[in-house]
Amino acid sequence: MVYRIALLVSAVIGATTVAPHGANASEAAAGVRTRESINFGWRFYKYGPDETPDPLVYDARPEITDRRETRPADERPTEAVQVRSDQAVLKPWILPTANAFIKDPANHHARPAGSPGSDFAFVQAGFDDTAWESVDLPHDWAIAGPFSGGWGAAVSGGMGRLPSPGVAWYRRQLDIPESSAGKSVFLEVDGAMSYAMVWLNGQLVGGWPFGYASWQVDLTPYIRPGGVNQLAIRLDNPPESSRWYPGGGLYRNVWLTTVSPIHIGQWGTCVTTRDVSPESAVVELRVEVANRSSSAAEVTLSTDIYELGQDDRPSGDPVASIEPAPLSVDSGRTASIRGAAKISSPRLWGPPPTQEPHRYLARTRLYAEGEVVDEYDTPFGIRDLRFDPNRGVLVNGEHIPIRGANQHHDLGPLGAAFNVRAAERQLEVLREAGCNAIRMSHNPPAQELLDLTDKMGFLVIDETFDVWERKKTPLDFHLIFPEWSEPDTRALVRRDRNHPSVIAWSIGNEVGEQYTGEAGAAVARRLHDIVKEEDPTRPTTTAMNFSKPDMPLPAEVDLISLNYQGEGIRDAPAYRGLQGIRTPPLYPAFREAFPDKVIVSSENAAAVSTRGAYLFPVTKGVSAPVADGAGGDPDTRQVSSYELYTTPFGSSADKVFRSLKEHPFVAGGFVWSGWDYLGEPTPYYLSRSSYFGIVDLAGFKKDRFYLYQSHWRPDLPLVHILPHWTWPGREGQVTPVHVFTSGDEVELFLNGQSLGRQRKTPGQHRLRWDDVAYQPGTLRATAYKDGREWASSEVQTAGAAAALDATVDRDQLLADGRDLAFVSIRIADSSGVTAPLANHPLTFELKGPGEIIATANGDPTNLTPFPSSTRSAFHGRCLAIVRTNRDEPGELKLTVRAEALRPVSLSLRSR
């Protein structure tokens, strides 16, 4: 069957553009809903490793008995450990926060009497926190380090060797004006890692344990309008709680929203479309209204629809309107209303380069007794989406092969603290490679990240969980899954269901329930049904690295998502004898078992490499598992950048490309991974970040980037040569030369002498000259396409390092305390040729209204703290990240120095 969807973009409380004090201009004029950023002015305290934290725990936890630091990524998850404890816990007071996301009222949680923690000093207004650290949000308490080195470290390589575990407090005074009396006031937290619990004026309000969830608590019963209101938030990040770096703290935005007691609910709009064509489209809007007043209310809702500009502001007059309609809402209840409007000649949302991601905005006004009491903006985009089992994904009738990347939530040297510009840069680099889709691995993303994918036109698979009831690490989120999986799932879908970039919901990744037959399938069925209740328009899926076509779990979801199984796991000759999951290529078997379902390669490749590292000899095969002395160096802990080596369960890009071409019914796939990320440093767990990315942690492109670019962008003239050509001491030794190109032929020259002309054969994605004897000079490659010269490139032997060169992604910045400039430093010889072996210590100095918040070089073994202003270059490159000061415009000057090298300076302007 063809799975057909027509739908739209994201429901956002308030406006997407926040004016001073958090309200957009329309809201401020109307005197209704205000949404104020409270990111600035926090005090922070984290218990030290020798301190005993306070006893205000969410729940008792099992004892950690398995402390292995090198768990295989595809190891079978295990059954949860039962915990019995007499310890007093706060869970009964936190669970009621989830009630709005639990469908059956019989399963709602009743709040016990009392307010645990009210007598604890940190929640009291009179507590003196001036000795605590002053921080602004988003804040990642661990990213500054220090790193933990060696085996048996406090935090192992799997979690990034950074001090993310621990208990910490955030405090901030809230200025709640007298005019807020009689209104509803909510604290909205976009992400808190993890087990968050909130007190206001000494009273326990509520909380949310899942560190990736967005949530709100109602402050109304506890506020003191016109006086000082003391907010305190406790977080508790367990050790051994993640397979990658989770970060720690209030690492996404935090808001204070004030509304009338009668208001549009949290994520209370749902936009869909139907009958989409170039001539017209019908926009349908469902709005949920909450009545927190003491009496029933008769209200009226009306909605105007505008085109939405790149500046996130509505432009021009409304293009359509939903006529006013009445609604009755009982006291203490919610009610919903539906309306529709037709838009003529709609500007459709679609992925570049063949389509444009046009967006609209629905502005809904809520009237009570003739007055506007609430106003709510919902950005969205009109598009027709179909899933065809024979072709894959069609957007507005056009077949869009998925050329995707998996992305973890960290921003490299900035850690988990979300920053719009840093996330945008990651997407820009991936877009340059030809990437058109992102899988959110393996958890709800920041809301602003989906705003970016909407604006830039990426397709997104939005994912909820990495674990269900069975655990992958001793203290991961399997501990809360039984009670929180329903609210976590509903919260994600309600928050993100209107984003046009979101094309499917993934309810899990490589979960242990793949191994439990019908019992595991029942969990999948429950989550699938929850998603469909919240959003019947998009398909569900779960990423499977073990489930086979004859097992019950795959039947419970709409799309078949395969991690590594499509091209086969440990099935090639080079992988024989390895332990772990082993499967032949399974695309045909799943196709036969589920002919009506689209198949997606949700994770593929899992190739590993270090930018600029080339190890010899080079495997003759197209794909090989990395091992010490075979693609990997155990002394330097680096992996060869010939881009042929993989994890034991992985495959090279070459093999993946071939497999996808041989199975054209597969919708496409997502490479593991787009960027390197903190944690999971396979194969060398003494390192602190992964080797998987096609882009390194600093944002420098690996050779593999160009292999993907040559395949994903066949119309881009491209030829890329590897390795570099500076090899003192290798004169006369065999140094294989590989070329990636979007052409079909390449001729290679060494110092002007042709080494032969090669033509790609079907299924071949690189050209190899494996017998080249190194001699200094110039390697030049000329690519041809259809017999005509297509592109050319060269690499030269570098002389002695002589100078520094600096480039910046943007030299005009905003003085908002958040905007960033990414400055790339290159070490060159006297002729300007990059010195690929240079590792000089660099010193960075900034003058002007800003600060250097991080430096990085892409070396996964480097344990220098990211905030350091001194860092060694790695293979000739280094990065500095400059942030502007808030409300301090002016010129910034960055100077970089290194001993015996000519320094470099670069100017930026903050406005």
**DSSP, total strands:** 50
Number of helices: 9
Q: What is the subunit arrangement here?
A: single chain
Shape: globular
For the sheet with most strands, the description reads:
8 strands, parallel, barrel
Gyration radius from CA atoms, angstroms: 28 Å
Distance between the termini: 55 Å
Instruction: Determine the strand fraction and express it as a percent band.
Output: 35-45%
Q: Provide the residue-averaged pLDDT.
A: 94
The poorly predicted ranges are 1-30
Which class of secondary structure composition applies to the elements?
A: mainly beta
Helix content: 10-25%
Strand order of the largest sheet: 22-23-24-25-26-27-28-34
Description of the molecule:
- This protein has 911 residues and is mostly beta strands.
- Helices cover 10% and strands 35% of the residues.
- The protein is built from 9 helices and 50 strands.
- It has an 8-stranded parallel barrel with strand order 22-23-24-25-26-27-28-34, surrounded by 5 helices.
- Helix 6 links the parallel strand 25 and strand 26.
- Helix 3 packs parallel to helix 4 (447-456) and helix 5 runs parallel beside helix 6 (517-534).
- Residues 1-30 have low confidence and may be disordered.
In short, what is this structure?
The protein has 911 residues and is mostly beta strands.
How does the SSE layout of this entry go?
Elements: E1 3-7, H1 25-30, E2 34-37, E3 42-46, H2 91-94, E4 133-135, E5 166-175, E6 184-189, E7 196-200, E8 203-208, E9 215-218, E10 228-237, E11 254-259, E12 262-274, E13 280-291, E14 297-308, E15 314-329, E16 334-344, E17 359-368, E18 371-380, E19 383-388, E20 392-395, E21 398-399, E22 402-407, H3 420-433, E23 437-440, H4 447-456, E24 459-463, H5 481-496, E25 502-509, H6 517-534, E26 540-544, E27 560-563, H7 587-593, E28 599-605, E29 624-625, E30 627-628, E31 631-633, E32 638-639, E33 645-646, H8 653-662, E34 666-672, H9 703-712, E35 719-722, E36 737-741, E37 745-750, E38 753-759, E39 767-769, E40 778-785, E41 788-796, E42 801-808, E43 812-813, E44 820-829, E45 841-847, E46 850-856, E47 870-872, E48 877-884, E49 890-897, E50 904-910
Parallel strand pairs: 22-23, 22-34, 23-24, 24-25, 25-26, 26-27, 27-28, 28-34, 29-33, 30-31, 43-50
Antiparallel strand pairs: 1-19, 2-11, 3-4, 3-5, 5-10, 6-9, 6-11, 7-8, 7-10, 12-13, 13-16, 14-15, 14-17, 17-18, 19-20, 20-21, 31-32, 35-36, 36-39, 37-38, 37-40, 40-41, 42-44, 44-48, 45-47, 45-49, 46-48, 49-50
